[in-house]
Amino acid sequence: MTVTTPDRFGGAFHGRTAVVTGGGSGVGAAFTRALTAAGAEVLCADIDLAGAAQVVAGASGPGRATAVRLDVTDADAVEDAVAAFVADHGRLDLVFNNAGIVIAGETHLQSRADWDRIIDINLRGVVHGVLAAYPRMIEAGSGHIVNTASAAGLMPAGLMTSYAATKHAVVGLSLALRTEAKAHGVGVTVVCPSAVETPILDKGSLDGFDGRRFFLEAEKTSQAYDVDRLAHDVLRAVAKNRALVIVPAKTRMGWRIGRLSPALLRRMTTRFVAEQQAQISKNAQNAG
Prior knowledge:
Elements: E1 17-21, H1 26-37, E2 41-46, H2 49-58, E3 64-69, H3 75-89, E4 94-97, H4 112-140, E5 143-148, H5 161-181, E6 186-193, H6 211-219, H7 227-239, E7 244-247, H8 249-260, H9 262-287
């Protein structure tokens, strides 16, 4: 596990204020731990209040973290949570729009309700965070917005169609916003990792789809990326005001291949998806 201290970021986060959505587990929990260790005052927000409280209890200073229940699909609730945090601390320096879910498997098995749910959380949840934070940052003339997307938001990702659609949207939102936010003194960073060791690897899969196997085989690795290492990578990128965080190195290489030869990346991805479809069929048969 990566140990984060204020000195690792040149004191960039010491005394700063930050809101983290989806902070009760996975990447959001790692952001909360890393920010608290780096000296920030953190609002750890999650629809699972017990999970957020547990993360806060395990986070060590010099910063401090507070847990709150928050449903990011509720725009008014997001606005109220940010307003209350600003009222308590006087300003908002950072917002990490991180809450998200995955629904993976054959696209024809996904219902309209599945699509509505993933769009509401993964895309509208980010929009709600931006709407609550960005005007306040413009008024202050400073701040940084961090949006969690995915490598699936940069490259073709069959069998993750709805997830990829929302993450492509988050990447587009972030890169577009960054071009105009600079004039207001506000930074924007979008986070695009591949498989990270979080509970999401084992959730949200449809019939016959093994999410963990899919992600790890896509990366040709036996181990997902360490979540605390990712948090460190992101904070370092934010401190340097970088636009994109793409990890690990294999993922950056795949992204670069796609930029140089989109057709080659599509062929590679199509072949991989076909192999996974065959495995899904086998899993379904065995389960039946």
